[in-house]
Amino acid sequence: MSATDRLNTIKGHLSGNFPTGMLTGEVAIITGSGQGIGKSCAEVYAREGALVVVTDIDAAKSDQVAADINAAGGKAISIPGDVLDAAFPEKLVEGTVSAFGKINHIVNNAGFTFDGMLHKTTDKQFEMMLAVHNTAPFRIVRAAAKYLRQKDGANKSIINISSTSGLHGNIGQANYATAKAGVIGLTKTIAKEWGGFGVRANTVAFGWVDTRLTRAKESGASIEVDGQKVSLGIPTGNRAAKVSPFADIPLGRAGNADEVALSVLMLSSPMSSYVSGITLPVTGGRGI
């Protein structure tokens, strides 16, 4: 697609003359899309006409999201699996191409937290965060190289999900903050190496978004990794009763999964055809 074609696509969409969506016929892999932000991304990409590959460690959730998209008139398949499994990236990529013939977009969203104060963090806690947030995305992108590194004029993007913890650090998250900072370096390298093939690579750094990672830890949300239960969420037991957790957010609230998914969609769309190598903070103004 030429620059003129892309511009006409944008104009047509904004004028209401492009009802089938900005990503019509394009193929998007979205990891961790069985729930939360990943699920919202899968849904908004599908609404914009993308052929979506839903993938999550929880097969039932992955299958359900794909089924819901199809029931709503979109097109999706489910390829569930564990991104920490070294064999899974190849399975995911080849399964995508077998079903849809190509790949246009990869959203590396899968991840979780494994919090602890630095002096109490174990090697396993630290290394697991690097594995899920750095090694897994690297392997998926590498597996897709032969399909993306082509000068075909297609709309192609890689979006890696980071966090404000990766931008500013965070108490109790030495492992997570290190991994999320690494996401930015990986993304910029992809942008420089693959830009010549028309691949745009960008990072989205989320702030406080209402998901199981930011809700009260006391609610009991958890994930099982290598047979170990990892509690998710933010401890609230010592929080002063009258202190708002959103006091430093200019918009005064948390984001929700559906609205922040649109920031990811934007970076895959023709609207961002000349945007690559950036880190987009999606924070409600927090950190300015």
TrEMBL record:
Source taxon at top rank: Eukaryota
Residues in the signal sequence: none
Bilayer-crossing regions: none
Pfam families noted in UniProt: adh_short
GO BP: fatty acid biosynthetic process
Record's keyword terms, sorted: NADP, Oxidoreductase
PROSITE patterns: ADH_SHORT
Record-given protein name: NAD(P)-binding protein
GO terms, molecular function: oxidoreductase activity, acting on the CH-OH group of donors, NAD or NADP as acceptor; quinone binding
Similarity-based family: Belongs to the short-chain dehydrogenases/reductases (SDR) family.
Source organism (scientific name): Hesseltinella vesiculosa
